[in-house]
Amino acid sequence: MKNFKKYLAPIVLSCATATATSVQAGEVEVLHWWTSGGEAASVAVLKDLLEKQGHSWKDFAVAGGGGESAMTVLKSRAVSGNPPAAAQIKGLDIQEWADLGLLTNLDPVAKQGNWDNLLPKVVSDVMKSDGHYVAVPVNVHRVNWLWANPEVFKKAGVGIPNSWEEFSTAADAIQKAGFIPLAHGGQAWQDATLFEAVALGMGGSDFYRKAFVTHDMDTLKSPKMVDIFKTFKGLRKYIDKDSAGRDWNIATNMVINGKAAMQVMGDWAKGEFVAAGKKAGVDFACLPAPGTSGQYTFNIDSFAMFKLNDAENAKAQNALAKTIMEPAFQETFNLNKGSIPVRSGMSREKFDSCADASMDAFNAAAATGDLVPSMAHGMSTTSYIQGAIYDVVTNFFNDDSLSAEDAVNRLAQAVKAAM
Ligand code: GAL
C-alpha cells in the first residue's frame, strides 16, 4: 500500500494536467490482458458493442495471464501522465488508483443504469471510492475449479477426485496409464492459484480468510499451514517436466486434447474449452477443486475509468461503462469468458451446466459464509501482500531444498513486511 503511493504519487500532478488531445474524438483506449482464444473472443464482444454506437476502440492488450505484466505497463503509462481511458483493474487496487485522484466519477452512468440495485453490495462496494463509482464490474469468475477430461479418466479406469487423497490415487493411475495427471504452467500466479485451492480445501473458509484477508500471523504460521504446503508440494510430481513458464491456456489445451487429465484453474479455462467447440458435461467436466465443494473463491473482473479531458472521449468512456452493465453484454461476454454475469436478474437459459453450478454455488456459499475472495487474483489483499505470498509459494514449489516449515515462516515474515 505504502509502496504503491510512493511510486505513483509524484506523477499525480502531471496526470491531472495532462491532456488527451492526441487521440481522436470518441475513442476509448482499453488496457486488458485478455489474449487467449476464449478471452479474445470475449473482449471482442465489448469492442463490437462500443463500435456499434459509433465510438472507436483502441486496443491496449498486454499478454500475460493474471495481469501482472499489464499492471506494470499501466503504471509506466500513468507515470508518463498518459493512462488509457479504461483499464482492467481489480479488487483493492481500484481503491489505490482512486486514492491517487486519477479515476473518474461514474455516478451519473451508474444512477441511470440502476447499478446499486443490480449489483450485490459486496461487488458495488469494491467499485466505489468514497461512495462514488470509479469502476464497472464485468463478471464473476469462480477460481476453485477442477477441469477434467473424462476420456482420460475412462482410459485410466479411475473416477474424477473430490478430495486431495482421491486426487493422489487417481493421479497415480493416470500416470501409469501414460497421461499427465495435472496440466499446469510454472508461473507464479498459476502456482498461487493451485496453492489457494489447496488452502481453501484443507483449511476451510475461516482459515482461508484469516490467512489471506486479515493476515493473522498465528494462522499463517500454523501447523495446518505446514500441512497445506506439504500437500501442495505433493502435487509437483503429477505435473510434467516441461511446465516452466507455460501459459495457463496451453495447459488447458493439454486437457482439451487428452494429453493431460486435469487442471486446477478459474473458469476462464472454460472459455478455452468453449472456444475449442467442447461441451460441458460431455467433452469436459467441471468440479469444485478437491475438498472445496460448497465453497466459492470469487474473482471479479472490472474496468476502472481514468479522468479524461477530451469531451468526446469522455462520452465514449461513459458509453463503455454503460454497455458493460447492460444485459446484452453481460450475457454474450460471459458465455464466451466462462464466468457468470455480475448483473442480477439475468436469464440462465443460454448458460451451460458449469455456469449453472457456479451461479448456485455463489448463492449457497454467500449464505453459509463460504464465499471468499481470491488471493491469487487480487481480491483478498493488496498487490504488495499478494506479491509477497506469490514469491514464497512459487519458490517453495520449485525449490526442493526448502522445507514446508521454513516456507511457512517465510510466508508470515513476508506478509508482515508487506503490510
Ligand atoms: C485473471 C482474470 C481472468 C482471466 C485470468 C487469466 O486474473 O481475472 O479474467 O483472464 O486472469 O488471464
Description:
This protein has 419 residues and is α/β, with parallel strands linked by helices. The protein has 2 domains: 2-138 and 300-350, 3-Layer(aba) Sandwich (D-Maltodextrin-Binding Protein, domain 2); 145-298 and 362-418, Periplasmic binding protein-like II (D-Maltodextrin-Binding Protein, domain 2, 3-Layer(aba) Sandwich). 52% of the residues lie in helices and 12% in strands. The strands form 4 sheets. A 5-stranded mixed β-sheet has the order 2-1-3-13-6, with helices on both faces. Strands 9-10-8-11 form a 4-stranded mixed β-sheet. The radius of gyration is 21 Å and the shape is globular. The protein starts with a helix and ends with a helix. The model is unreliable at 9-24 (pLDDT under 50).
Compile the SSE list and pairings.
Layout: H1 2-17, E1 27-32, H2 37-51, E2 56-61, H3 68-79, E3 86-88, H4 92-99, H5 107-112, H6 115-118, H7 121-127, E4 128-129, E5 132-133, E6 135-137, E7 141-142, E8 145-148, H8 150-156, H9 164-176, E9 180-182, H10 188-203, H11 205-212, H12 217-220, H13 223-234, H14 248-256, E10 260-264, H15 268-275, E11 285-288, E12 296-299, E13 302-305, H16 311-324, H17 327-337, H18 353-368, E14 371-373, H19 383-398, H20 404-418
Bound molecules: beta-D-galactopyranose (GAL).
